[in-house]
Amino acid sequence: MQFKGLIELGLQPVSIDLKKYFGKKDELLHIINDLGGIWVTGGNAFVLRTAYKLSGLDEIIEDLTASQQDFVYSGFSAGCCVLQKSFRGLEFVDDPADVKVSYGKDKEVIWNGLGLIDYVFVPHFESDHEESEVTNDEIKYYDENNIVYKTLRDGEVIIDEINKI
Predict the structure, then answer these.
(1) Terminal alpha carbon distance of the chain
(2) What are the residue boundaries of the structural domains of the chain, listed by start?
(3) In 4, 63, 138, 151, which residue has its Cα 20 to 30 A from 74's Cα atom?
(4) Is domain 24-152 given the CATH code 3.40.50.880 in the classification?
């Protein structure tokens, strides 16, 4: 589990399953306020974005960013992709239909990210990861549509101060 690395850094991680907070934004806000930051794991970006919406985490992050409170948002793969403005192009890597499989046929796919960064992430670029090969299709889409992107190989990081852009 990813907790090991965080513990080695001297942190005290707590696991939060967003499904437990669907429709309970105030409860989630209380927990998030006590933490001072979050580390978001990867997975399917469309599924994660829907979990943000259903739990209210998207609004919590937007409010924390707008108020410029000291808050650290970190993560990898899908956990970073949710920060971008649009999910167009991510369908080459993540299946949008997984939203309906994960949360029900009545759930619509959300194609907008949080819009906190002005570029898109291409995680697992040229890496030993099952999604690495299809990132070339994603990059081709971004190039053809003049979309600014940053590639990240597994193990690389971007440190950015996010103020509401």
Answers:
(1) 33
(2) 24-152
(3) 138
(4) yes
